[in-house]
């Protein structure tokens, strides 16, 4: 069975899933597995931020980061290893906290590092995957879950769910400037989003309104004259959608659309790009290169796809493709064996020197001296969030300890 256009290894450790039954739109109710719980004492708190964030729907796409003030680990907290407990998607919550999804659960930590709530998205014994997260201006959490679209309130209560039928691979979610929610992904066969049916396979884009009603559902080849696959979606400061796509003719591009899905701009990425979700501004994009043999490098390109600079991380990270998130200063945050801020000119600043993040994380999960792997990164004004795993005893079969941490002044 094929799964659409070429897959990006780091970005899409996804599995196709058959939708599970869920309630119709605007069902309400509570979906907490463990409920608003506070999570006990704050984990190793060493100060924190005021929780302010830019007036943007998805701050981890376009928040500004001041590398001179973002430093020091505010807190680190362990995550419960439920089923596959490895962090899969991460988003800043615009209140100084963070929301993290594993393949089966979604949980929120507040600005002080308390776990506020946790949602089980995939019932025990069922297959599926949480494919995307996005936060709206109210702090509500839009989730692209298996067989459903869902909006959870900032306190973890279900605001609405909308059923999705079909063999789907959801690859991202974003909240646009008008408050509508966009999901992107690939359907391998017939798919139904509310009353809208996509009868054939293809890369899809679906928009929901604030009540969970389907505003539109279409294939990307309705917008492009070719079979096109999306690999992620974010939002810029204008509230427009940025979708990372691969065109059938070859090559990756960051395509920007307004709420009516009219294409505004396109930035083509260089051949060999491995990971670029979220890594774009209105006038530039970031591409990551690397494979099992070649150490990863990061390249910034302008709107014409012309390389501006290339950065080679000083450390070869455990992950073959480091995550990268752009900010509106023209720089980006990446994890490459340590947490780095790259400014507009490609100059790197280590935000957690002397392995301070590793020390804090090992202390939180109860291990000692082990490295971080599988890192995911999100940014908000004045803060950077990292979620990943610490693998203890890798030569003896290994045990994974998932974590989430906040770095800020």
Task: Tell me what portion of residues adopts beta-strand conformation.
Answer: 35-45%
CATH first level: Mainly Beta
Whole-number total of structural domains: 1
Query: In which range does the helix fraction lie?
Result: under 10%
CATH homologous superfamily identity: TolB, C-terminal domain
Largest beta-sheet characterization: 9 strands, antiparallel
Could you name the ranges where pLDDT drops below 50 across 5 or more consecutive residues? 1-69
Helices, by number, come to: 2
Q: Which word captures the global form?
A: globular
Can you give a write-up of this model?
This protein has 409 residues and is mainly beta. The chain has helices at residues 59-62, 356-365, and strands at residues 17-18, 32-34, 73-78, 89-92, 98-101, 105-109, 115-120, 132-135, 141-145, 148-152, 158-175, 181-193, 196-198, 202-208, 214-219, 228-235, 241-247, 252-257, 263-268, 284-289, 297-302, 307-311, 324-326, 332-335, 339-342, 348-350, 372-380, 383-392, 399-408. β20 (284-289) and β21 form a beta hairpin. The protein has one domain: Neuraminidase (6 Propeller). Strands 1, 8, 9, 10, 11, 12, 13, 14 and 15 form a nine-stranded antiparallel beta sheet that branches. It is built from two helices and 29 strands.
Brief digest:
With 409 residues, the chain is mostly beta strands. The chain contains 2 helices and 29 strands. The N terminus is likely disordered.
Helices and strands, with pairings:
Elements: E1 17-18, E2 32-34, H1 59-62, E3 73-78, E4 89-92, E5 98-101, E6 105-109, E7 115-120, E8 132-135, E9 141-145, E10 148-152, E11 158-175, E12 181-193, E13 196-198, E14 202-208, E15 214-219, E16 228-235, E17 241-247, E18 252-257, E19 263-268, E20 284-289, E21 297-302, E22 307-311, E23 324-326, E24 332-335, E25 339-342, E26 348-350, H2 356-365, E27 372-380, E28 383-392, E29 399-408
Antiparallel strand pairs: 1-11, 2-7, 3-29, 4-5, 5-6, 6-7, 8-9, 9-10, 10-11, 11-12, 12-13, 12-14, 14-15, 16-17, 17-18, 18-19, 20-21, 21-22, 23-24, 24-25, 25-26, 27-28, 28-29
């Amino acid at each position: 069975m094929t799964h659409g256009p070429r897959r990006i290894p780091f970005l899409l450790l996804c599995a196709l899933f058959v939708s599970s039954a869920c309630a119709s739109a605007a069902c309400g109710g509570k979906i907490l597995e463990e409920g608003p719980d506070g999570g006990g004492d704050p984990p190793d708190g060493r100060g924190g931020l005021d929780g302010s964030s830019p007036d943007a729907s998805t701050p981890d796409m376009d928040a500004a980061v001041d590398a001179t003030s973002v430093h020091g680990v505010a807190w680190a907290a362990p995550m419960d290893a439920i089923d596959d407990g490895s962090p899969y998607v991460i988003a800043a919550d615009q209140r100084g906290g963070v929301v993290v999804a594993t393949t089966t659960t979604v949980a929120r930590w507040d600005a002080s590092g308390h776990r506020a709530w946790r949602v089980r998205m995939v019932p025990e014994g069922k297959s599926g995957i949480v494919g995307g997260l996005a936060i709206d201006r109210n702090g509500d959490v839009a989730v692209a879950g298996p067989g459903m679209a869902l909006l959870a309130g900032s306190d973890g209560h279900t605001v609405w769910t909308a059923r999705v039928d079909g063999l789907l691979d959801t690859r991202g979610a974003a909240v646009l400037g008008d408050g509508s929610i966009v999901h992107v992904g690939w359907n391998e066969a017939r798919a139904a989003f509310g009353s809208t049916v996509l009868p054939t396979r293809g890369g899809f884009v679906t928009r929901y309104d604030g009540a969970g009603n389907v505003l539109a559902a279409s294939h990307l080849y309705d917008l492009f004259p070719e079979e096109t696959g999306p690999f992620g979606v974010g939002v810029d400061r204008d509230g427009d959608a940025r979708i990372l796509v691969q065109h059938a003719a070859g090559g990756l591009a960051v395509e920007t659309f307004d709420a009516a899905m009219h294409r505004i701009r396109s930035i083509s990425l260089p051949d060999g790009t491995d990971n670029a979700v979220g890594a774009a501004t209105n006038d530039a994009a970031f591409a990551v290169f690397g494979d099992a043999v070649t150490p990863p490098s990061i390249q910034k390109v302008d709107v014409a796809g012309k390389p501006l600079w290339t950065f080679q991380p000083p450390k070869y990270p455990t992950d073959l493709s480091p995550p990268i998130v752009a900010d509106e200063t023209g720089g980006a945050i990446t994890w490459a064996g340590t947490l780095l801020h790259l400014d507009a000119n490609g100059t790197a600043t280590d935000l957690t020197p002397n392995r301070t993040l590793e020390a804090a994380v090992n202390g939180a999960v109860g291990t000692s001296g082990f490295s971080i792997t599988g890192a995911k990164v999100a940014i908000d004004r004045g803060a950077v969030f990292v979620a990943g795993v610490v693998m203890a005893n890798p030569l003896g079969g290994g045990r994974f300890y998932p974590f989430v941490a906040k770095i800020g002044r």
